[in-house]
Amino acid sequence: MIVEDDTSLRELFAIVVEQSGYAVITAENGFEALYLLETEKPDLIVLDMNLPVFNGMQVIRHVRSTADLEHIKIIAASASTKANASEEAQMADAIFPKPFRNNDLLNLIADLLDNAPA
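Request: output the structure for the sequence above.
Response:
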């Protein structure tokens, strides 16, 4: 799952990740992500920390406190060092500063998922 409020970035990330063999669902804000997580159970979430409607910190808290979601790997992504240093970001499996290169993101996804595309 890719959760990013910037439409261009969200679409770019989705294309790059799909072309690497992973199935992708997207959400444009934290509320939509939480709604999708009621029915979708992704292996990994690339999560912008600075989202409207529910921010990344709120999404991480929800995922980590919900039994059937807590196993999901989370990559917290933000250009803000404050957001990346937050307690919630530290609950993510990886913190990834923006901007980043697509290959760096794909390598991190592969590492977190043990190189097994979904």
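The domain at 2-112 is CATH 3.40.50.2300 (Rossmann fold).
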